Amino acid sequence: MNRNSVSSNSLEAESLTKRYGSGHTEVVAVGNVSLNVAKGEIVALLGPSGAGKSTLLTLLGLIRPPDTGRIVIDGKIVFENNRAKVNVRRFRREKLGFVFQKANLIPFLTAFENVRLAMDINDQPAKVSRKRSKELLEYLGVAERAQHLPCKLSGGEQQRVAVARALANSPSLILADEPTAALDSVRGRQVMELFRKVAHEQHAGIIVVTHDHRALDVFDRTIEMEDGKLKR
Question: Residues 132-168: pLDDT tens digits?
Fold first, then answer.
């Protein structure tokens, strides 16, 4: 990649490795993993429990640093040669979105307030955050639930709000870890289709860790992981 060019990829990861322990107890959770995700592409990351999928997501999401390798997000080198090249906390807030198995909404805030909070933390003007929160809830089909607390929302509605929150700061990359595990098959598929809509219409790269093989037709590409490595 020409480092001065504008990348067509949301993510470029090269030779990522993460080890835990040492000597006889050393475990290679992620071993020499490289992958690219284009803008507007949704990718499923598959594999058995313990394959390293969630660990890989924490590396790509800048939650944990890799031991070796290089991470480029939206054309910006964020990690290389064992060093962060950006202010990680700020970059994560501005460029990344996260959705997990549980929606993890703040229980005493309404759906609208949960989405708006993501922008308030980034010091967005109140007028901007209010407008975008309303637009995102409408876009994701839960506008009529905007003033409800999470306890008054169904599991599917909570995940839609969580996706709206992940989109709040217009991220280049969205990482989702088993986002449909707590949902029935119908609502699970609806959430997966929602991710595809977001990827294709919002031009974000999306990686979804999933065990649900019933919705794989939703994805542009599937990648399998086993024993810390990607299967080719």
Answer: 999 999 999 999 999 999 999 999 999 999 999 999 9
Q: What is the pLDDT of residues 82-100, one digit of tens each?
A: 899 999 999 999 999 999 9
d(CA 18, CA 25): 14
* pTM of structure: 0.91
Helix (H, G, I), strand (E, B) or coil at 192: helix
The 3-state DSSP class for residue 141 equals: coil
Residue 7 DSSP class: P
Q: Which residues of 194-212 are buried (b: 16+ CB within 10 A; e: fewer)?
A: bbbebbeebebbbbbbbeb
What gap in Å lies between CA 91 and CA 76, rounded to an integer?
10
Q: Which residues pair with 105 in a beta bridge?
A: none
